[in-house]
Amino acid sequence: MPGKVLIIDDIATNRIVLKVKLAAACYQVAQASTAREGIHAARALEPDLILCSAQLPDMAPDAFLRALRTHACTASIPIVAITSHRDATRRLALLEGGADDVLVKPWEEHLLLARLRSLLRQNESALEGHLREDVTRALGMAEGRDAFDHPSRIALIAPTKEEALRWKDRLLDHMTGRIMTLSTKAVLSDMAPEAIPDAYVLFGDSAALRRRPETGPDRGPDNALHLLADLRARHETRNSAIIVVLSGENAQDRAADALDRGANDAIGQAVKPREIAVRLRRQIARKRRLDKLRADVASGLKAAVIDPLTGLYNRRYALPRLAAITSGAYSSETSPLPSARFLQNSQQTGKVPRNAPSKNKNRRDYAVMILDIDHFKLINDGFGHAAGDAVLERIGNVLREFAGPDDLAARIGGEEFLLALPDTTPQAARQKARQLCETIRETVFIAPGVKQPLQVTVSIGLALASDPHPRPHMAEPDWRGAQAMLERADQALYSAKSHGRNQVIVCTERSAA
Amino acid sequence: MPGKVLIIDDIATNRIVLKVKLAAACYQVAQASTAREGIHAARALEPDLILCSAQLPDMAPDAFLRALRTHACTASIPIVAITSHRDATRRLALLEGGADDVLVKPWEEHLLLARLRSLLRQNESALEGHLREDVTRALGMAEGRDAFDHPSRIALIAPTKEEALRWKDRLLDHMTGRIMTLSTKAVLSDMAPEAIPDAYVLFGDSAALRRRPETGPDRGPDNALHLLADLRARHETRNSAIIVVLSGENAQDRAADALDRGANDAIGQAVKPREIAVRLRRQIARKRRLDKLRADVASGLKAAVIDPLTGLYNRRYALPRLAAITSGAYSSETSPLPSARFLQNSQQTGKVPRNAPSKNKNRRDYAVMILDIDHFKLINDGFGHAAGDAVLERIGNVLREFAGPDDLAARIGGEEFLLALPDTTPQAARQKARQLCETIRETVFIAPGVKQPLQVTVSIGLALASDPHPRPHMAEPDWRGAQAMLERADQALYSAKSHGRNQVIVCTERSAA
């Protein structure tokens, strides 16, 4: 449970002082007294964090940092360098070399511990990401990385407009990207998703140290820490990179506070634009990695429920969905819920004819149909698998066109499809089934390597049901109901097959027709 | 971008005051003046948060809360009730009825806004969860819910041991679960994973308000806010439910601070044990929902890369993995990386004969073999698919037994398997391939519905390669190298088939043998 910290310092006293402080804060501590020993220990122990002197006798700082940063085992371990020089150029060199932060001796204990916590917390999420990356790369989504290579958008927020503009001007000497200056009000106002900054630099107002009223008739929260809390509470910016720059009274203490409140980076001392640029680049790169990862996980999950050939939902997804439909939880009233909105895009391409909603609001009629391609084996055997696949794909497209936004279209077997209508009328469902059967009969199927167009028909079993007490409330999935619907549709399908195929047979609530 | 807040209050002045405050803090505000109107607006607008008077003229508070809590559209919207009664029983009734917090008029503005931020932030993650739940339920993992139904573990941390014990005693009157009292030191020390509490209640020390040295020779951080930051920075507790209870000087202000620093709940006033119990139950339920969801997402991702029949990796996973192996990124030196540890369990069942590591440390030899079951179609056609599946499953088990912890075993086609050895010798790889071929020949295959045991053989194509400059550094996946290895193994396999099957053919770096 305790974080593992590796201390690398050639001076025994320094190591001991740090060790005592860290052990008291319940960290596990390992030590090394030279750069080489430290690199070796880092690879062997894989600590959660490295705390090192910037002046090690056996290696120059840049070579030392490079050795850690380029080795797979140590590349992503956060590094805090401790130096006795107040010199900004030296600090910058360490940051550019790969240190995550540089503390100047005598370091402020509160800030040191807050920085450690912050780095551990952030590395924690990176690690969680690392775990997933393996799988998501396996899911084949890794190629889209350059989709994130748009120029970065950076927002500067300072106590005065002039100050913000001055920083903008100075930052532009050291980095590219769209840098904008925003008022507090503008930061928290509505923004087009594509305009939302990747990173925020919040310059603290040294005159506004202690809490002031957060609001008034004409202004929003007015200092960096409040703004930080607001940004973290909002959907669009909760994963943004936020750097807080503080100066004046208690700046180091407030920087420590900012870190504990979720800033990705906080600076509590005089700082040059170039250093802000270095820190910004690092935070933006980190944010994009995590954005990419989140997108990959979403696609990975999506890939697990989509049939790759037709793009329809697969059986694994369809069955629980059907259980939700039979339970009534998926009535049109609840469909605006986020859960129902998810993954809609994959279904909603092409025109979407909506269902006629049930007229009688006191009950809900719903329907499930199973489609099976007639003599599919003949297509596969006669024209090859590629032809068979082309037919499946085309039928998938027809089905998608027939499915309304609340309907569920899925491929549930090799040549078997499902279309569920959660809110319809018996008439509308029958008509839709007949139209579907006709449309496929009239569709011209062109298959690769096959000269003449193929003639394809389907048999459809349609099960109708009625829910006399539809509940808009949340309901448990109704597995038995779903199973029963499927069985009835299956019976009807069997009946359609044995009556000569290329037709619809309907099974109403009580009796199979 | 701004959070949408619905204000429900029958007194116009109250609504206006709240609206002004919230608009100044850049929230979007909607209003309703009766309970019924409010419920209707909540369903229609789906606000991010509801701020309501606890005394609405047209409906009793419990009926009003129930109406919101039981409807799918509004069930998970955070609700803050505002009352003018300081009465603890009334507050408790509101919390038990479903309010997330109760503020007493005149409410402290800072606390109100911090509470809003906290609820928005937490609902945000619940929402993200909601989005995924749909998919993960579809992945069929929803049934395991009761795995999380162990009694909850709750840790109480108070300034003195006596105080902690007193709270424990009083809490046990109102809830079940394992309640333990912990010192700060014990909280941050190593703990067995199964002993880690679900929830922490941190009782603030009113005497330790302003910052004290965080550490000393014999103690850790000593007040609630520091402990909160530490818990959030640690792997095992970053998702724990944390409730901070503060009293004394500036308690409300500090409660607001605790919320902004990531507490799930914070109380800045005198509080009864029963209220803590209500809040604890809610936070623990929330934590378990999210734990379940995280587990589901992990299983969902895993399901996407595992072949359900054999439990081996599927083709989708195997190819990028092979590209990592040929690039050298998957040498045994880097395998202790988290990325390589992930999903190991699925491979490591049964005994795991380790590869003989390459003797010559200056180069790395690796090997890829493709196995194809001989005359598999005859098994399927002659004995049915169930028999074919049983054979595939059994061969999957054999392969798993042959795969060392760094090796990759996968099913890459209907009857085609892959075994990649990232670090081996040509001798060891040849021997392993031959043993594999022999083992399968000698295995007794029992298939369902088939009386006599089946005789099954495989043909194996083995490709050997050598990496003269192995880099332990991180490398880009080597897609071309992987493709080339597969092609060579495929050629060798073809050769094995055409030479009479049931044998191994080796393709060395330059020439096919």
Short key terms for the protein model shown above:
homodimer; about 525 residues; alpha/beta; five-stranded parallel β-sheet; about 15% strand; Diguanylate_Cyclase (chains A, B); diguanylate cyclase (chains A, B); EC 2.7.7.65 (chains A, B); diguanylate cyclase activity (chains A, B)
Structure characterization notes:
- The structure is a homodimer of 513-residue chains.
- Residues 140-148, 208-222 and 331-360 of chain A have low confidence and may be disordered.
- The first copy, chain A, has 513 residues and is α/β, with parallel strands linked by helices.
- In chain A, helix 5 packs parallel to helix 9 (251-260).
- In chain A, the strands form three sheets. Chain A has a five-stranded parallel sheet, with helices on both faces.
- The first copy, chain A, has three domains: 1-107, Response regulator (Rossmann fold, 3-Layer(aba) Sandwich); 141-300, Response regulator (Rossmann fold, 3-Layer(aba) Sandwich); 315-507, Reverse transcriptase/Diguanylate cyclase domain (Alpha-Beta Plaits, 2-Layer Sandwich), CATH 3.30.70.270.
- Chain A starts with a strand and ends in a 6-residue tail after the last strand.
- The first copy, chain A, contains 17 helices and 15 strands.
- Chain A is elongated.
- In chain A, 44% of the residues lie in helices and 16% in strands.
